[in-house]
Amino acid sequence: MSKIKAILGVSQESIKLKMGKKDKWYNDPQMVGTLLLFWPPVGIYGLHKSEAINPKWKKLTYATLAMVCILLAMAFIV
Prior knowledge:
The protein is mostly helical. The protein has helices spanning 2-8, 12-18, 29-38, 40-49, 55-77. The longest helix has 23 residues, at 55-77. The protein starts with a helix and ends with a helix.
C-alpha cells in the first residue's frame, strides 16, 4: 500500500474511499446542520465527531449554542 501511495501520491483515506468505504453520517456537513436544527443533541454529537467540518465553524457553532442557552436561561429566570 505504501508503494502505491508513493507512486501515485495519494493518501490512504482517498484510496479507501475509492474502494467503496462509506463516509460516516457525522462527516456530512449538511446532515449535521439538519440535525442541529431538528434534533440538537444528536447534531451536537455529530458536530463534535465530525472530521469534515472546519474547526473554525465548530467553535462558532458551539459559541452560538452557548449564547442561546444563556439567553434562554436569563429569559426564564426573570
